[in-house]
Specification:
By secondary structure, the protein is mainly beta. It is built from 1 helix and 9 strands, in the order αβββββββββ. The chain has one domain: Immunoglobulins (Immunoglobulin-like, Sandwich). About 5% of the residues lie in helices and about 35% in strands. The longest helix has 9 residues. It is elongated, with a radius of gyration of 15 Å.
Length: about 140
């Protein structure tokens, strides 16, 4: 188990709510990464998150990445932003509300680049918003 813990920490996939970017950047943004739906994930499924209005001040478009890793910290998938068909990989998002916006990402349950379904087990999903990392875990049951 120790080897798995080091692999996760090496990618910054600790269990903290958010990891800090480099010094001198803005304070932690208001981001809510929701538990995957349904908890005990049976692919396909969705991951929802909310970005606060302060991220969009002065026309700023936060750059967002969402990735799913296995317990060995190997990249498994990059979900697709619902309604756009675009992968959430360094994707600038926009919002017309000063209160912020909610987003939903879709994962079909397949391992990226292989076409094979993800196996049952524990996975980690990480949302990166302008350098800030937010991490949660999910369990896939088949």
């Amino acid at each position: 188990m120790t080897r798995y813990a080091w692999a996760l920490l090496g990618l910054g996939l600790g269990w903290a709510a958010a990891a800090r970017p480099a010094a001198g950047q803005m304070p932690q943004p208001s981001v809510q990464l929701q538990p995957n739906y349904a908890n005990s994930f049976i692919p396909p499924g969705t991951i929802q998150f909310r970005l606060g209005g302060e991220l969009f001040l002065n026309g700023h478009r936060p750059v967002v990445t969402l990735r799913i890793y296995n317990v060995l910290a190997q990249l498994v998938a990059v979900p697709i932003l619902n309604g756009t068909g675009q992968q959430l990989d360094s994707l600038p998002l926009s919002c017309s509300s000063t209160l912020g916006c909610s987003y939903s990402a879709y994962w079909d349950g397949y391992v990226r680049g292989t076409g094979t379904p993800a196996l049952s087990g524990v996975y980690i999903y990480q949302l990166v918003v302008d350098g800030w990392r937010f991490t949660k875990k999910m369990v896939i049951i088949k």
